[in-house]
Automatic annotation (TrEMBL), chain A:
GO cellular component labels: basal plasma membrane; cytoplasm
GO MF annotation list: transmembrane transporter activity
UniProt organism field: Gorilla gorilla gorilla
Leader peptide range in chain numbering: none
Protein name from the UniProt record: Organic solute carrier partner 1
Automatic annotation (TrEMBL), chain B:
Any Pfam family the entry gives: WDR54
WD repeat locations: 196-230
Protein name (Swiss-Prot/TrEMBL): WD repeat domain 54
PROSITE patterns according to UniProt: WD_REPEATS_2
SUPFAM superfamilies: WD40 repeat-like
Alphabetical UniProt keywords: WD repeat
SMART domains: WD40 (SM00320)
TM spans (from-to): none
Domain WD repeat-containing protein 54 beta-propeller: 19-240
Domain of life: Eukaryota
Provenance organism: Gorilla gorilla gorilla (Western lowland gorilla)
Primary gene name: WDR54
């Protein structure tokens, strides 16, 4: 297992999260002058994205992230994204957060699977960063944070061998193993089958550095070619046009990791039909995790590094719905299969007195705002009240 | 299929598999052992699958914190079992005809990068015949002759891509690479005689049917190919023909 996988996992999942939030916020957008007090405007959207991105790329947080370490469980990671999603004035119900995380993970799983070379996962990461920079192009300080992360990525991953990237790829694929949630956009584009498996294309350009299959060359003792055989290999490949750029700016060539939501289509996930493969997933969540203590430490360190900006005065919480209607969101929460529920980790840390004080302090820092929830929260009041983290 | 938990209490049946686990049946002259590798170490079991006869913990002493520590690549050669490691060193274990008195007899130096795979074949009975090949993440192949001390015969350099899988048959080395190619080398000279643009993605695995000389390659491009290996009747050079 590679100990350098976490930054790539975190940044790419974070990128997907931002794409989805951006698309949903745009979909629910109302022009500023026409908006009621409880409706989203363009200004709100930009603010939410700015807040989340600046939290994500906070220097202390990045420092922790880039330290060599094992990947932790999906539950631990989801807790981080839940915190991140709430780094601004936006609130998400459990059902919406679940759907968000499902979409994020399936999207990145797809990108990793389809990477032509293991090293191309770095290009996917750069694609995400390029688009993120587009979201915050009016904020030079945050831009600088993102560029700094870019430099760190280049420094750490630029010199890795193909073998090390292969290990990173395997580590990522193990993380995504047995996740077969169907995503409507993928189903429609026929890149995912009805059983939740992705379609691996057997046509198109070969990876940079690979020859198009179909040729056997034979040589003598002096290295001179003495015979050639061509054969049909079953696919329909063409040579790679050029290599993607690993520079700060450049043509990445690869489309994986770019914003596939920019077409403004609503994206649905399907829970039914994916239960057949949940057996191993269920086992993972039930069996006591011997690494639980380390996970808590990891979370504490990461969250300690996360700086949540506190707004100057009491502000209303805005609620974002990942579904098309509130009723749909409620329905999704009720019908979500047991095995797919992400239980938010309860950080009680009862064993170590000192550690629990530290964690309690960090948890305290996450109380972002005192919500006057009854009158001013956007969206459904009842559900917003259930949003206590 | 076998899965094993290296740290838990002994329990028959399938348990949670350790990550990066490799399993191989090692057929030796007088016994068969089941060998498992992971990022903690190497375990050897009797052929019943549950009597452990040997445990070797990996020494991560000079590994930097960013380096993954693991054992990978298992093969039997005569009464030796060879296991590759993350550092490039190949551990050679001397296996007695029965019992747990297994000894680490040698550590082969030849590779600087993590070992990916090891292939062996019974010695052909002549002098200087290669009977083991080791491969690593840089694509380097080392060709060895087994014995009380293993001798390095040749090195075949890589070209920037890992060699995840290697096979040895009648003096022919078959190597699958991360760029989708399969190469065939003459083991005695190290010369490349056949280069196949076989797959559009990395070759994951090679297997060889030794009675008929058929080589199977599987790639991440979802394809499986079968090749017939032979020698030219005139020149004796290695040749390959696509069958599937």
């Amino acid at each position: 297992m590679s100990v350098r996988t976490l930054p790539l996992l975190f940044l790419n999942l974070g990128g997907e999260m931002l794409y989805i939030l951006d698309q949903r916020l745009r979909a629910q957008n109302i022009p500023g002058d026409k908006a009621r007090k409880d409706e989203w405007t363009e200004v709100d959207r930009k603010r939410v994205l700015n807040d989340i991105i600046s939290t994500m790329f906070n220097r202390k947080f990045m420092e922790e992230l880039f330290k060599p370490q094992e990947l932790y469980s999906k539950k631990a990671l989801r807790t981080i994204y839940e915190r991140l999603a709430h780094a601004s004035i936006m609130k998400l119900n459990q059902a919406s957060m679940d759907k968000l995380y499902d979409l994020m993970t399936m999207a990145f799983k797809y990108q990793v699977l389809l990477c032509p070379r293991p090293k191309d996962v770095l290009l996917v990461t750069f694609n995400h960063l390029d688009t993120i920079k587009g979201f915050i192009r009016d904020s030079p300080t945050i831009l600088q944070q993102v560029d700094e992360t870019f430099r760190q990525l280049t420094e750490i991953y630029g010199g890795l061998s193909a073998g090390e990237f292969q290990l990173i790829r395997q580590t990522l694929l193990i993380f995504f193993q047995d996740l077969h949630i169907r995503v409507s956009m993928f189903l429609k584009d026929k890149v995912q089958n009805n059983n939740g498996r992705f379609v691996l294309p057997v046509s198109g350009p070969v990876p940079w550095g690979t020859e198009v299959p179909g040729l056997i060359r034979m040589f003598n003792n002096k290295g001179e070619e003495v015979k050639r055989i061509e054969f049909k290999h079953g696919g329909n490949y063409v040579p790679a046009p050029k290599e993607g750029s690993f520079e700060l700016y450049g043509d990445r060539v690869l489309k994986l990791g770019t914003n596939m939501y920019s077409m403004n289509q609503p994206v649905e996930t399907h829970m039914s039909g994916s239960s057949k493969n949940l057996a191993s997933w269920t086992q993972e969540s039930i069996a006591p995790n011997p690494l639980a203590k380390e996970e808590l430490n990891f979370l504490a360190r990461l969250m300690g590094g996360m700086e949540i900006k506190k707004p100057s005065g009491p502000e209303p919480g805005f609620r974002l719905n990942l579904f098309t209607t509130d009723e749909e969101e409620e329905q999704a929460a009720l019908t979500r299969p047991e095995e797919l529920s992400y239980e938010v980790i309860n950080i009680q840390a009862t064993q170590d007195q000192q550690r629990s004080e530290e964690l309690a302090r960090i948890m305290g820092e996450f109380e972002i705002m005192e919500q006057p929830r009854l009158s001013t929260s956007k969206g459904d009041d009842l559900l917003a009240m259930m949003d206590e983290l | 299929m076998v899965a094993a938990d290296l740290e838990g209490p002994y329990e028959p049946g399938v348990r949670r598999a350790d990550l990066g686990l490799q399993v191989h049946w090692c057929v030796l002259p007088f016994r068969v052992l089941l060998v498992l590798t992971s990022h903690r170490g190497i375990q050897m079991y009797e052929s019943n699958g549950y009597t452990m006869v040997y445990w070797h913990a990996l020494d991560s002493g000079d590994a930097s914190p960013v380096q993954a520590v693991f054992a990978r690549g298992i093969a039997a050669s005569g009464h030796f079992i060879c296991v590759g490691t993350w550092s490039g060193r190949v551990l050679v274990f001397d296996i007695p005809a029965k019992g747990p008195n297994i000894v680490l007899s040698e550590e082969l130096a030849g590779h600087q990068m993590p070992i990916t795979d090891i292939a062996t074949e019974p010695a052909q009975g002549q002098d200087c015949v290669a009977d083991m090949v080791t491969a690593d993440d840089s694509g380097l192949l080392c060709v060895w002759r087994s014995g009380p001390e293993f001798t390095l015969l040749t090195r075949i350099p890589g070209f920037g891509v890992p060699c995840p899988s290697v096979q040895l048959w009648q003096g022919i080395i078959a190597a699958g690479y991360g760029n989708g190619q399969v190469h065939l080398y003459e083991a005695t000279t190290g010369n490349l005689h056949v280069q196949i643009n076989a797959h559009a993605r990395a070759v994951c695995a090679l297997d060889l049917a030794s009675e008929v000389g058929k080589l199977l390659s599987a790639g991440e491009d979802t394809f499986v190919h079968i090749w017939k290996l032979s020698r030219s009747p005139e020149s004796g050079y290695i040749e390959a023909t696509p069958l599937l």
